[in-house]
Amino acid sequence: MTIHDLWLRWTASLRASRLDAQLAVGAAPTPGTALAARATQLTARRKREALARALCDAVRDAHDRTALRGLRFPVDRANVAAAQPVIEDVVARLRAPHRVEARGVARVNRIVADGTGPLYRSGRGDLAGRLGAAHAAM
């Protein structure tokens, strides 16, 4: 690994939100750029498993009224319950050994990270629709 590679990874981490937005709408990650480094981070097994776990936690929390919330945002129980079949499809795809497209994983990451989005109680939007689009883009 070169210093340039380390710099790209560091830049990709610092600008993750902005780069995820670009990837989510289909920007091409040109090799040797921060966008390509972010695409690599998103599609890594570790990140995919973290996103799958977050979605599974949301389903669990939606069905368990006694779940401890800790520092997490409370999930929108109705949205999560309605989207559960799509969530299960997304989780299966994230955990599959097959290659995934950064565009779809970026979309899932944005859904999970956005505390004002449809996954969470105070959020807005169509969770099943957004996750379905992310799944299709993977």
Short description:
By secondary structure, the protein is mostly helical. The chain is 67% helix and 0% strand.
Report on the structure:
The structure is a single chain. With 138 residues, the chain is mostly helical. It has one domain. It has helices at 3-14, 16-24, 34-43, 45-63, 77-95, 102-113, 127-137. The chain is elongated and about 50 Å long. The model has no long low-confidence stretch (mean pLDDT 93).
SSE diagram, text form:
Elements: H1 3-14, H2 16-24, H3 34-43, H4 45-63, H5 77-95, H6 102-113, H7 127-137
Helix pairs in contact: 1-3, 2-3, 2-6, 3-6, 4-5, 4-6, 5-7, 6-7
Give the beta-strand count: 0
The percentage helix is 55-70%
What is the approximate shape?
Answer: elongated
Structure classification: mainly alpha
Task: List the helices and strands in order.
Answer: HHHHHHH
Q: Determine the number of helices (DSSP H or I, runs of at least 4 residues).
A: 7
Query: What is the domain total for the residues?
Result: 1
Strand composition percent: under 5%
Average pLDDT rating: 93
Radius of gyration: 15 Å
Uncertain segments of ≥5 residues (pLDDT<50)? Answer: none
Cα(first) to Cα(last) distance is 28 Å
What can be said about the biggest beta sheet? none
Task: For the structure shown, list the relevant keywords.
67% helix; single chain; 138 residues; 7 helices; mainly alpha
